[in-house]
Amino acid sequence: MAEHDSDREDREPDEKGVPFDEAAAWAAIVAGYGDEPPDPPGTTPFKPVEDLALPPMEEDEPVPGPAASQEKSPAKPLGSSVSFAPGVGPRDYTAPEPSEDDFDEDDEGHFVPPEPPPLPTADTTARFAWLGVVGGPLLLLLAVLLGWDMTWWLATLGIGGFLGGFVTLVTRMKTDDDEDGDPGRGAVV
Fold it and tell me: What is the pLDDT of residue 70?
């Protein structure tokens, strides 16, 4: 903070002898409110919004604006643009609902997927392995949340159940080497 204050002292001049008239400053701001400052010399003035699509003007030409366009000729359109009424537009379009009458004799109709096969039933060993993988950490979490004493049998049951179930599930995984000739596992080209 000391560095910040010392840096500020170098930038601000010492004007302790000249009083600041805050009321005069606010009066100047209010008096100039709404007035546009003049453009710096050598710059081209900004185009009004109505004339943004018109070609660039020469430096000798006056700035076209609402007063200049009324004197000469009617205003030109700003370009090709499509305008829609509120509530009517390309995003408000809804496709008609298909019906059976829309199909010809050559069309097959809607696709109805076949009934999926039932899930395979797990054997008892796999069920106990999943119980150990999920139940071991849950038992340890429950013991911590409820403030139980972490006894040796509780830790052994939680950690051992997780490790034993994980090893059982990994060793019982099926490998792809057993069923290389099975064409039912995907497209056969």
Answer: 47
